[in-house]
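Supplementary Note 3. Input sequence used for the single-chain structure prediction.
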Amino acid sequence: MKNISKKYLFYGFIAFNIIAVLYLYFSDYKIEPKMLKTLINTEYFLTSYIVYILILILRGLTLLPGTAFLLAGIYIFSFAQVFFAIQIAIVGYCFIIYNFAHKLNLGHDNLSDSFLNISSKIL
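The predicted structure, written as discrete structure tokens, is reproduced below.
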């Protein structure tokens, strides 16, 4: 993808979000957090929990700070549910990284001598 199209995609995403927020603001659409929390915890609990775990896995792969995701999760779910979601996500993204390393033949046997020399100096 060229840099120009990435730039248009980024600015289009920003413009779409601004237009959506302005539309919701001027249409007097009321979003109540208690209503959303009740809906997520009752009718769509399993779906929202799986989506939360997938978001945590993506967060782990991209190395984003986890504080915002932790606080949002504690607001929506209970502390124990958030704890288990984080543990599942950690196992999930470690498994993904391990499988990618295995597919790319990145192991201790396949490392070059120069890399091993550098790592031995560091350790």
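The mean pLDDT is 83. Residues 114 and 120 are 10 Å apart (CA to CA).
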